[in-house]
Amino acid sequence: MRLLSIALITLTISAMAYGQCTDTNSSGSGTTSCFCNANYYGTSTDAGGSGCQACAPGSSSQASNAVGTLASSCVCNDANASLTSNNSACQCNANYYGTPNSVSGGVSGCTQCGSGLTAPAGSTSNVCASSNATTSSKLLQIMVLLFLLTILI
Ligand SMILES: *[C@@H]1O[C@H](CO)[C@@H](O)[C@H](O)[C@H]1NC(C)=O
Ligand SMILES: *[C@@H]1O[C@H](CO)[C@@H](O)[C@H](O)[C@H]1NC(C)=O
Ligand SMILES: *[C@@H]1O[C@H](CO)[C@@H](O)[C@H](O)[C@H]1NC(C)=O
Ligand SMILES: *[C@@H]1O[C@H](CO)[C@@H](O)[C@H](O)[C@H]1NC(C)=O
Hints:
Elements: H1 2-17, E1 26-28, E2 34-36, E3 40-43, E4 51-54, E5 59-60, E6 75-76, E7 81-83, E8 90-92, E9 96-98, E10 110-112, E11 117-118, E12 129-130, H2 133-152
Antiparallel strand pairs: 1-2, 3-4, 5-6, 7-8, 9-10, 11-12
The structure holds 2-acetamido-2-deoxy-beta-D-glucopyranose (4 copies).
């Protein structure tokens, strides 16, 4: 047991001395210089973090050269898409709709709304609508009300 501990400690020390990172999702010259690999974010367990985690599907990141990167350092491969607020997936940007292309450099899977039309971020189907639709319907309501008032008087 004691021999095993000594062997393990020796292994760890030599791993550090030879610049290896035990967190397989990171690389570098050991401990505080273990940085997350490309397509990973977070803080290497070698640097005292909870580990480098894979970017959300359809997003990617460059190999880090600093300890601790944010989930938002992963960028969606579709130029017209961005990560959701909890960084768990890619979605089409506001005023676009569709399913983001998971491959970078390809044609966007997100289609832009027509001129003057808007859609919320994350729209998967064509829900593009005139942004002043509510204003128009309110105006109509006021006009109907005025018309009714005129009749009453
Ligand atoms: C390495 O990444 C994989 C995929 O995200 C994850 O399941 C695993 O827990 C990570 N390893 C560490 C040590 O965090
Ligand atoms: C992230 O948010 C989406 C809704 O926007 C939800 O469906 C999903 O479960 C969330 N994922 C996590 C890991 O919290
Ligand atoms: C993103 O959308 C714009 C406008 O529709 C388009 O010109 C551009 O090519 C799209 N990006 C990609 C990568 O297809
Ligand atoms: C409503 O939207 C249309 C289409 O974009 C635009 O032409 C029009 O000027 C807008 N009207 C108002 C009152 O903003």
